[in-house]
User: Which sequence fits this backbone?
């Protein structure tokens, strides 16, 4: 543990509920350890607020290991903050300087209404997944691992797409609040594998239509989603999804 | 809703319509540039080309209507996408930081309207202008279409507007062409590679190619080289 601590000015978005207007609130925070994670820094701020009988800042979090996809906020204009391939919980305060002002906003999108402060409702993503279909009958025990042979490059690409943790940073970073990186990752981790072929095109079509229904924007090929993704999901997935969607539609 | 209507209403459908209409417009622009560059070959050949175009009669009209419809589709679908995209964000961020977003990419929605504005001026100048013989007279000789283009682009204001417009078009295409490949998923244009190079290269060719015309006209006028053409 480093003994040196830093002082910060935090401008945090406060919003009571989805309907209220919301505004920025400024807090000074001293004695922040550079070894603390961003969420631990927020915990420290919340402790101070609670001790003063103020309402603590609501923010999403769960595993704090960068694997669950629950946390996320826009820090100084960047989804999950300035570090590449890093979730907010894995961002450490050593990347900030003493005296820095940090502006913290929720992921902003019509498809992600604010629940409170930095906590947002991402159930739109669940409905997109549901639109892809699911199996509700027993299909027997798991088959032997090598019954269906899968080419290495296909399995690699599918696993890369399956890395998506559904955090929504792609929507937050996209200038159009488009969810295409998320949706394409979810479509492709199945469409690239032999097991995903039977419903490949209907799945792509249904998931895209649900994505549109949720009010997300359209891709304008600016690739900000890929730059913000903590799991390095490639926009090649969007190209594949576009291809499958045309085949499904025409 | 029919399958095709669903497709046209969907996010991917709309951007693919923008892409297809964009490809048609790019093909037109390339042909237009090749035709215009004949100006370097002197008044005779350029006027023969202009005359050949006009003598197409009905076919030319059909092509013009097709072009108008393609432009309209490109613009209407883009406006629909822009409105949806604005609504999708809701409240704007207090701070935004763009990572690896090129200048051409960021200015698409400005270069598009600039090109449209110029297109209207351009049509007023060269297509819808009333036949006025004086505009085609250069050094006392009636040079028909060549003379009309020559006199128009000799005007420094017009030359500057023309160059600014074709540079906007070049920027627009340097993002637009690679977007077509990504939108149809032919090849992902996400990484620096041949698709991006082709897209940027085409943007430069269009911008430099069209810009060379007013520069050339001013050059031959002020250097006296025009007289060689007229002899």
Assistant:
């Amino acid at each position: 543990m480093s003994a040196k601590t830093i002082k910060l000015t935090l401008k945090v978005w406060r919003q009571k509920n989805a309907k209220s207007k919301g505004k920025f609130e400024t807090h000074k925070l001293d004695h922040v350890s550079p070894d603390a994670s961003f969420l631990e820094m927020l915990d420290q701020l919340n402790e101070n607020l609670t001790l003063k009988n103020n309402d603590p800042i609501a923010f999403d979090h769960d595993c704090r290991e960068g694997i669950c996809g629950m946390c996320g906020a826009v820090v100084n204009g960047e989804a999950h903050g300035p570090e590449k391939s890093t979730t907010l919980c894995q961002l450490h305060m050593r990347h900030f300087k003493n005296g820095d002002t940090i502006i913290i906003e929720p992921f902003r999108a019509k498809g992600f209404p604010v629940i409170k402060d930095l906590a947002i409702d991402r159930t739109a993503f669940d409905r997109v997944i549901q639109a892809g279909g699911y199996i509700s009958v027993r299909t027997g025990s798991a088959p032997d691992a090598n019954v269906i042979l899968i080419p290495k490059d296909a399995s690699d690409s599918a696993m890369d797409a399956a890395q998506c943790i559904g955090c929504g940073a792609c929507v937050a970073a996209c200038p159009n609040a488009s969810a295409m990186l998320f949706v394409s990752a979810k479509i492709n981790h199945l469409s690239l594998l032999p097991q995903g072929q039977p419903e490949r095109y209907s799945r792509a079509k249904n998931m895209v239509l649900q994505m549109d229904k949720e009010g997300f924007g359209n891709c304008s090929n600016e690739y900000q989603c890929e730059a913000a993704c903590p799991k390095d999901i490639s926009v090649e997935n969007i190209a594949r999804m576009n291809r499958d969607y045309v085949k499904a539609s025409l | 809703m029919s399958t095709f209507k669903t497709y046209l209403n969907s996010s991917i459908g709309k951007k693919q319509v923008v892409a297809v209409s964009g490809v048609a417009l790019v093909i037109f622009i390339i042909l237009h540039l090749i035709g215009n560059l004949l100006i370097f070959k002197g008044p005779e050949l350029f006027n023969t080309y202009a005359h050949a175009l006009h003598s197409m009669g009905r076919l030319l009209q059909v092509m013009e209507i097709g072009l108008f419809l393609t432009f309209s589709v490109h613009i209407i679908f883009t406006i629909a996408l822009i409105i949806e995209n604005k609504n999708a964000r809701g409240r704007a961020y207090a701070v935004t930081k763009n990572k690896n977003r090129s200048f051409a990419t960021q200015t698409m929605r400005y270069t598009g309207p600039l090109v449209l504005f110029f297109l209207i001026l351009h049509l007023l100048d060269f297509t819808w202008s009333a036949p006025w013989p004086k505009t085609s007279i250069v050094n006392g000789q009636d040079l028909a279409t060549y003379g009309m283009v020559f006199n128009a682009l000799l005007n420094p204001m017009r030359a500057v507007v023309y160059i600014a417009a074709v540079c906007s078009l070049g920027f627009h295409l340097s993002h637009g062409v690679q977007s077509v490949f990504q939108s149809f998923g032919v090849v992902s244009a996400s990484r620096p590679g041949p698709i991006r190079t082709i897209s940027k290269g085409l943007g430069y060719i269009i911008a430099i190619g069209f810009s060379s015309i007013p520069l050339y006209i001013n050059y031959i006028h002020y250097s006296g080289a025009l007289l060689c053409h007229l002899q």
Q: What stands out?
A: Chain B touches chain A through 46 residues (CB under 8 Å). The mean pLDDT of chain B is 90. DSSP finds ten helices and two strands in chain B. Residues 58-89 of chain B form the longest helix (32 residues).
